[in-house]
Amino acid sequence: QVQVVESGGGTAQPGGSLRLSCAVSGTTYKINVIGGWYRQAPGAQRELVAALFSGGATNIASSVKGRFTISRDNAKNMLYLQMDSLKAEDTAIYYCKRQLWQQGWGMSDYWGQGTQVTVSS
User: Closest by alpha carbon to 1, among 34, 38, 27, 39?
Assistant: First the structure.
């Protein structure tokens, strides 16, 4: 059974930094295709923040480009989001999504439970 768990959220001041981590387990016989970070602010729709494809290409939202960096550690099955120069509008619940492929099953999406990020002075 695949489990996705985020960590690293919390409160930071404007201009500060936080690093989110996403661990995934239960991936035997599955291939990590895409790892992504999404966020949802109160009253807003969930939106893509950053995605990292298996080949190394990235897709970064324009609102965070130049401030946030997505990376991974394949050996540890970890996905990271380094968030620098934080702004109040970055306040949201951040979710990790892993898209895994398995022969005979195709592609499946797995979401974490979310971690709160609050940017406030």
Answer: 27
What are the beta bridge partners of residue 106? 102
In this structure, what is the dihedral angle of CA atoms 119, 13, 7, 43, given to the nearest 10 degrees?
0
Reduced to 3 states (helix: H, G, I; strand: E, B; else coil), residue 88 is helix
pLDDT (tens place) for every residue of the chain, 121 residues total? 899 999 999 999 999 999 999 999 888 878 888 999 999 999 999 999 999 998 999 999 999 999 999 999 988 999 999 999 999 999 999 999 999 988 888 999 999 999 999 999 9
Is 26:110 a contact under the CB 8 Å cutoff?
no
Rounded distance, CA 10 to CA 104, Å? 40
